[in-house]
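@channel sequence for tomorrow's demo:
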Amino acid sequence: MEKSVANPDVGSDLRGVKELLKKHQGLESDLLTLDDQINTIVSQGQALADAGHFDRVGILKAVDQFNKR
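structure tokens (generated this afternoon):
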């Protein structure tokens, strides 16, 4: 996904631009889905940590990594 975002190609004709725009819209859709999933995981991890899970430190570390990414 990061490779797609870093692609400097802007298209050389109308057809190429439309294809790139379609790819971009698909990427945006994928990112929104991933954002929802990450937010769910972070919320669940935070709830486990707040509930006193035995691996609270590990869970909070993983939650922090999700938030940084």
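heads up for whoever presents: Helices lie at 2-5, 14-50, 56-68.
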